[in-house]
Design goal:
Distance between the termini: 43 Å
InterPro entries: AAA+_ATPase (IPR003593), ABC_transporter-like_ATP-bd (IPR003439), ABC_transporter-like_CS (IPR017871), ABC_transporter_ATP-binding (IPR050763), P-loop_NTPase (IPR027417)
Organism: Rhodanobacter glycinis
CATH superfamily of the largest domain: P-loop containing nucleotide triphosphate hydrolases
Domain ABC transporter: 9-232
Shape: globular
GO molecular function: ATP binding; ATP hydrolysis activity
Largest sheet: 6 strands, mixed
CATH class of the largest domain: Alpha Beta
Number of strands: 13
Number of domains: 2
Keywords: ATP-binding, Nucleotide-binding, Transport
CATH architecture of the largest domain: 3-Layer(aba) Sandwich
Bound molecules: adenosine-5'-triphosphate
Structural class: alpha/beta
């Protein structure tokens, strides 16, 4: 399906320096229609700078940033996007319903107010002044404002920070509904389970560069770690030095081992400790893959 449409957003060879610091150092990112792309990376990796370039808030020193094949500052491009940034400066005395109505009026084909409120789970907040809401409620209102214009592309910068579990799950459901409508989403998050649950594609940034890109499964396969847990008297520190063991630790009396050669390590564990019990072997999640990927440059530097 994707091939039939041009990319909705694109960074090509994007470079952005702040004084001598390279916030972005030649970043390529491509987003297709109906796709949720998760931008991951440790603090300072360049996620927000990438979003700022795509929004036209910051200009690249080299390379280019495009929305729908256009300069992101063009009004024709801006009318097709919705944005929820990490902080929002909204008038505290305005009621939520008024805010939604006003924001929707800037768009050519907005959603009906009730639909936006329903998607963001703020139906009961419409008459409340924005400034009187809790942090999590304000985040939901910001989400409603981002989607009320029926955008083709939604930028969500750490949208679920400060939300309780129920609100977070509702927002996940809303994101899925929007994707099903054909909306594209750029999501930055530090909650890896969020990327794991929602993203078709993940880009991992580190030190202003793309460290890795692919589906959640592809990223996992790249580091291909398996987690082994068991109850054993073996010394975790000694096991950590075995060949093909990436890491080993003792957590709550359980030995936990990460390895790319599960069969080999399981065999050695059983041979070395015949009393070993409660053996569990599980494919590593995105969290382990992410840690491994973002650690890689440091290891190379050290070599
Ligand atoms: N306006 C600015 N002036 C100077 N340096 C900046 C500016 N904006 C970002 N930086 C620097 O650029 C680098 C990338 O920052 P960026 O905000 O893009 O990272 P991030 O991946 O979004 O981090 P976080 O997860 O903490 O939000 C950081 O080293 C940051 O200090």
């Amino acid at each position: 399906m994707n091939e039939a449409f041009p990319p909705v957003a694109r960074l090509a060879g994007a470079v952005k320096h702040y004084d001598r610091l390279a916030a972005l150092d030649g970043v390529d990112i491509m987003l297709h229609r109906g796709e949720l792309l998760a931008l991951l990376g440790p603090n300072g990796a360049g996620k927000s700078t990438s979003i700022s370039l795509l929004l036209g808030l910051v200009r690249p020193d080299a390379g280019c940033a495009e929305l729908f094949g256009m300069d992101p500052q063009r009004i024709e491009a801006r009318r097709r996007i919705g944005v929820m940034l990490q902080s929002a400066n909204l008038p505290p005395t305005l009621r939520v319903g008024e805010m939604l109505r006003l924001t929707a009026s800037y768009y050519p084909d907005p959603r009906p107010l009730a639909e936006s409120a329903e998607l963001a789970g703020i139906g009961d907040l419409l008459k409340r002044p924005y400034g009187k809401l809790s942090g999590g409620q304000q985040r939901r209102v910001q989400f409603a404002l981002a989607l009320c214009g029926r955008p083709e592309l939604l930028f969500l910068d750490e949208p679920t920070v400060g939300m309780d579990i129920d609100a977070r799950q509702k927002l996940w459901a809303a994101m899925r509904a929007l994707i099903a409508e054909g909306c594209s989403v750029v999501l930055t998050t530090h909650y890896l389970e969020e990327a794991e649950a929602l993203a078709q594609r993940v880009v991992v940034l580190g030190h202003g560069r793309v460290l890795s890109e692919g589906s959640v499964d592809e990223l996992r396969a790249k580091v291909a770690l398996t987690r082994i847990r068991c109850v054993s008297d073996l010394d975790a520190e000694a096991v950590a030095h075995w060949p093909q063991v990436a890491s080993a630790s003792s957590i709550d009396g359980r030995l936990q081992v990460a390895t790319a050669a599960a069969e080999h390590v399981v065999r050695r564990l059983l041979d070395t400790d015949p009393a070993l019990r409660e053996l569990e072997v599980q494919r590593a999640g995105l969290a382990e893959a992410f840690t491994e990927l973002t650690r890689a440059p440091t290891l190379q530097e050290a070599a």
